[in-house]
Amino acid sequence: MTDGLQSDLIAAVATAPGQGGIGVVRLSGVGARQVAEQVCGKSLTPRRASFSDFSDGAEVIDQGLVLLFSEGASFTGEEVVELQGHGGPVVLQRLLDLVCSLGARVARPGEFSERAFLNGNIDLAQAEAIADLIASSSVSAARAALRSLQGDFSARVHALEEDLAGLRVLVEACIDFPDEDVDFLEQVQVQQRVDALVELLAALKQQSQQGKILNEGASVALLGAPNAGKSSLLNVLAGEEAAIVTDIPGTTRDLLKVDLVLDGLPLRLVDTAGLRHTTDHVEQIGVARARAQAEHADLLLLLLDLTTLPQPLRRADVEHQLALLLQDVASDAQKILVLNKLDLVDTAPTATNVQDADHAAVAAADRNLWPGFKISAKTGDGIPQLRRGITQALGFEQQEATFTARARHIDALDQAATALQAALSELKLGQSTEIVAEELRSAHLALGEIVGTVTPDDLLGRIFSEFCIGK
Ligand SMILES: Nc1nc2c(ncn2[C@@H]2O[C@H](COP(=O)(O)OP(=O)(O)OP(=O)(O)O)[C@@H](O)[C@H]2O)c(=O)[nH]1
Ligand SMILES: [Mg+2]
Questions:
Q1: Which domain holds residue 61?
Q2: Ligand 1 pocket member 376 (CB < 6 A)
Q3: Greatest C-alpha distance within the chain
Q4: Residue 86 counted as domain residue
Q5: CA–CA separation, 31 and 34 (whole Å)
Q6: Ligand 2 centre from 306 Cα, in Å?
Q7: Which of 43, 163, 306, 395 has the highest CB neighbour count under 10 A?
Q8: Which atom of ligand 1 approaches the CA of 250 most closely?
Q9: What residues form DSSP beta bridges with 22?
Q10: What's the CATH code of the domain at 111?
Q11: What is the pLDDT of residues 291-323, one digit of tens each?
């Protein structure tokens, strides 16, 4: 236990609000046992569940199982008691009121997990993984969150921290003993080690980004000219008639967001107004929103209507339309080309029969998008291939063992990478050892923020306040 303040007795209903077979009131801190023994009217043995009345002395409020965990052998690291009664809001509130009248106070959201962190039972990334596990929206996300909770992500960060610590010792020794200036060999060695660290960081960042997508879901925006079939495609992917579809160009005006799980990957699919120049004021707002949405998306599905393209299909024509579509769209998101209404033209859904002429004429559009996916939102042709294309573009491989991560972690990895890059160029320029050491120090601090070795107080407050009560 770190200090007396954290060990005051807290209590909360640990089960979800509403009615359920069982409801749990959890207590943690000094006096948990004493309060529970008073409520149960008997002495308790650690780790042995026993059936008991829960009584305020005058009246029995509920009955159920009581379970005591000793200090040092519990989730929070403190003395913990679980009173497992019946899962009704009234009975649980009465039980909570009772333990509070006997000296406990109601816990803040996440306070149990915060204590587990402060007492060194879990690190910060693991604490966050608890919240992520509870909030996970797919089986893959839950699996990944569990891996983070078990320490997979933290272990990777700790390994980097250790490398960095070793490096700092080497560099700072040169500051402490300035007479023995860094000789050439040592400098090369330091450079190589920083290089290796930069690579490891990049690999971890890439995996963390996958973890973030699993955790928070990816945002995928549908973009295209009016009538290209964006809303139809949204409906097909969502498996429901979420968006209005008509043959009137300009049907969709507002953003329409649908959450779905695509082959294990949680997505937020966003339908947008067809991009065109228009004098209609409402539609203008819709088009502006579509463009803004494109900037925030992780992936853009760029829809073209095959019936508006000359047949046989030529790459140059497609890329010309794409360039027009993207001319006012500022987005460095990943992009997938989708050619819709396959049922209305005479082409097979594979790219092989496409005449790939006139490459040189292609100007602005991203050439890597070709040949894209040919689909029919009407018949469902090509949709399974597109689904796979979406998960692949987001780098999501279901089989790959991964962990959950948050935007906060990726920011910290970025900060560490920037500092290491700076150290590297300073080393190459032959800058003073102090400057290099300072960059290494900030890289180390950034990594420490992920797992909580260094934690500004407001960061802790922000993280734990997002938890649900009783966790
Ligand atoms: N034959 C055929 N018609 C389609 C297909 N996809 C969409 N359509 C039709 O094309 C018209 C426009 O479809 P929408 O899904 O509303 O197009 P949109 O891109 O959302 O259009 P806006 O909201 O106006 O920007 C409708 O009449 C659809 O039924 C397709 O694959 N094949
Ligand atoms: Mg639409």
A1: 4-121
A2: yes
A3: 90
A4: yes
A5: 5
A6: 16
A7: 306
A8: 24
A9: 86
A10: 3.30.1360.120
A11: 999 998 999 999 999 999 998 899 999 999 999
